[in-house]
Amino acid sequence: MITADILIATPKDELSSLSKELDSDDVELLIEWLSVKEDKLRYPSLLVLQMRSKDSDCLYKYWPVFREKLKSDNSYQRSIGLMMIAANVRWDSSGNFEEDYDAFCALLNDEKPITVRQCVASFAEIVPFKPNLNSKIAETLMSINIAGIRDTMQKSVLLDITNILLLIRKAHTSDAIEKYITDALTGGILDSKSKKAIQAAL
Predict the structure, then answer these.
(1) What is the value of pTM for the model shown?
(2) CB within 10 Å: which end of the chain, N or C, has fewer?
(3) Residue-wise burial string across 128-149, b where 16 or more C-beta atoms lie within 10 A, e elsewhere
(4) CB under 8 Å to 197, separation ≥6 — which residues?
(5) Which pLDDT tens digit goes with each residue over 79-117?
(6) What is the dihedral sign for C-alpha 25, 61, 107, 123?
(7) How far apart are CA 129 and CA 50, in angstroms?
(8) Beta carbons within 8 Å of 120's beta carbon, 6+ residues apart
(9) What is the rounded distance in angstroms from the CA atom of residue 36 to the CA atom of residue 83?
């Protein structure tokens, strides 16, 4: 049985092993801890649950809990909701993500730039398991107004978007995707290191 003390004391590089030992009661407890204010307990709970989600569908039944977090007044809870949904899309045979697509993507316009970035980055976990949404995801990401994002975050968000488009591009491309990537490479937002990384991936 996991306890708060055990979780907090477990080094980050050992959380993966811990995630494989969870029973149903442990999972239930970790789900509860996602809602606590203490980050020293909340954050490792998130990490362990994300790791467990890669190996087991035992968290898929909590999708309604994660869905509710997308609408939370607390930005940390919104981020937790989107990250847990992304981690469990691989088990989504019921079309829950398609149903929640608009609510999920609403966070691409979140008031917190870090949440916007987390939402964009989360598509790296979604794209491989939802090929039917490739075109829709690409269109959604390309519609983000980079100029409307805080200056210090514009480069990071644009790079995140471009990386997801490169992932989509492996299975599906379009003139719009190619143009977006070209514009990112020729524009003034990305630095030379980022541009070289993108060119290497093309």
Answers:
(1) 0.94
(2) N
(3) ebbeebbeebbebbbebeeeeb
(4) none
(5) 999 999 999 999 999 999 999 999 999 999 999 989 999
(6) positive
(7) 16
(8) 108, 141, 144, 157, 160, 161, 164
(9) 17
Residue keyed to tokens 């442990």: 26
The two three-digit tokens of residue 119, written as one number: 């939402």
Joined together, the tokens standing for residue 56 give 């087991």
Q: What is the 3-state secondary structure (H, E, C) of 36-68?
A: CCCHHHHHHHHHHHHHHHHHCCCCHHHHHHHHH
Sign of torsion over alpha carbons 27, 23, 122, 92: negative
Contact of 90 with 126, CB cutoff 8 Å: no
Where do the H-state alpha helices sit in the chain? 4-9, 15-19, 24-33, 39-55, 63-69, 75-88, 96-105, 113-126, 134-142, 151-169, 175-186, 192-201
Scan for tokens 């290497």, then name that residue: 200
Q: Where are the domains of the chain?
A: 98-201
Spatial separation of the C-alpha atoms in residues 172 and 170, rounded to whole Å: 6
pLDDT tens track for 165-183: 999 999 989 999 999 999 9
